[in-house]
């Protein structure tokens, strides 16, 4: 395996396009690459990496946009040590990794061996995929709509609350994220007389659109707003040309 580290996003995108499009679990990685190419990310990834096999094909890909952890497509556990060793030489502040379970464990183990740190699981996610939308059994009152320009402060506040409640990183970048999302129609509100729930739509990649975040303030929960927002946003994405949605 030949390891290639680069800061050239265009080169990385061209070499990894087929790999990232072929695997749903790589959708987040592919979405970030597309966002950078489209100018949505104010700061490009600190570093990108590829594993090139004996046939000169890309076997795995990785990138990191600080302060977030290293995103890695599935790789052979035996390649984790070399990847982490090379990465830490350039990015010694690497806080962790994110991938499918086997790869995540391999990256965590390699990181621990190299740094002497104690790895711990910070969160675990499941992936839900839909191609057909069924409305909730009891649809909520209201409708899905794009936010108005004067609702930016609300979007920022709700996005920050979501990050804090979900125990994610990135609260300091909330305003940039909101502005970028609004620019391409990637944030929507469910309205029932007043805004009741926030939902995000990511850039379509290889026909797939990731839904998220989904956030309803505590006083407005248990009224079905989020479920109806997910259904309406998914229907909107499919009508716009996506072949499947992911949550």
Layout of SSEs?
Elements: E1 2-6, H1 9-22, H2 27-37, E2 47-52, E3 58-64, E4 70-72, H3 80-90, E5 97-98, H4 101-115, E6 129-130, E7 143-145, H5 152-165, H6 174-183, E8 187-191, E9 195-201, E10 208-215, H7 225-239, E11 244-246
Parallel strand pairs: 4-5, 10-11
Antiparallel strand pairs: 1-2, 2-3, 3-4, 6-11, 7-8, 8-9, 9-10
Helix pairs in contact: 1-2, 3-4, 5-6
Tell me what the structure shows.
- Helix 1 runs antiparallel to helix 2, helix 3 (80-90) crosses helix 4 (101-115) and helix 5 (152-165) packs across helix 6.
- It is built from seven helices and eleven strands.
- The protein has helices at 9-22, 27-37, 80-90, 101-115, 152-165, 174-183, 225-239; strands at residues 2-6, 47-52, 58-64, 70-72, 97-98, 129-130, 143-145, 187-191, 195-201, 208-215, 244-246.
- By secondary structure, it is an alpha+beta fold.
- Strands 6-11-10-9-8-7 form a six-stranded mixed β-sheet, sandwiched between helices.
- It has two domains: 2-115, Aminopeptidase, CATH 3.40.630; 129-246, 3-Layer(aba) Sandwich (Aminopeptidase).
Kindly identify the CATH topology of the largest domain. Aminopeptidase
Based on CA atoms alone, the radius of gyration comes out at 19 Å
**Oligomeric state of the chains present here:** single chain
Q: Quickly give the structural class.
A: alpha+beta
How would you characterize the largest beta sheet?
6 strands, mixed
- Looking at CATH, the homologous superfamily of the largest domain is Gcn5-related N-acetyltransferase (GNAT)
* Distance from first to last alpha carbon: 33 Å
Specify the number of helices. Answer: 7
β-strand amount = 15-25%
Average pLDDT reading: 92
Q: Which sequence of strands runs across the widest sheet?
A: 6-11-10-9-8-7
Query: How many DSSP-defined strands?
Result: 11
Helix content: 25-40%
| Count of discrete domains | 2
């Amino acid at each position: 395996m030949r390891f290639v580290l680069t800061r050239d996003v265009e080169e990385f995108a061209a070499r990894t396009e087929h790999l990232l499009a072929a695997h749903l679990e790589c959708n987040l990685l592919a979405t970030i690459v597309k966002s950078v190419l489209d100018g949505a990310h104010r700061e490009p990834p600190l570093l990108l990496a590829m594993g090139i096999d004996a046939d000169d094909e890309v076997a795995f890909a990785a990138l990191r946009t600080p302060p977030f952890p290293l995103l890695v497509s599935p790789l052979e556990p035996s390649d984790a040590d070399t990847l982490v060793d090379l990465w830490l030489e350039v990015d010694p502040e690497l806080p962790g990794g994110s991938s499918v379970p086997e790869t995540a464990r391999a990256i965590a183990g390699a990181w621990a061996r190299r740094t002497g740190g104690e790895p711990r699981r910070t969160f675990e996610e499941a992936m839900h995929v839909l191609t057909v939308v069924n409305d909730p059994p009891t649809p909520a009152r209201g409708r899905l709509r794009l936010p108005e320009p004067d609702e930016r402060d609300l979007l920022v506040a709700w996005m920050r609350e979501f990050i804090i409640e979900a125990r994610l990183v990135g609260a300091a970048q909330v305003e940039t994220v909101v502005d970028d999302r609004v620019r391409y129609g990637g944030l929507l509100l469910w309205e029932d007389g007043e805004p009741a729930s926030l939902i995000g739509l990511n850039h379509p990649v290889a026909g797939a659109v990731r839904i998220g975040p989904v956030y309803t303030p505590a006083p407005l929960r248990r009224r079905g707003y989020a479920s109806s927002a997910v259904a309406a946003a998914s229907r909107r994405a499919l009508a716009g040309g996506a072949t499947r949605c992911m949550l």
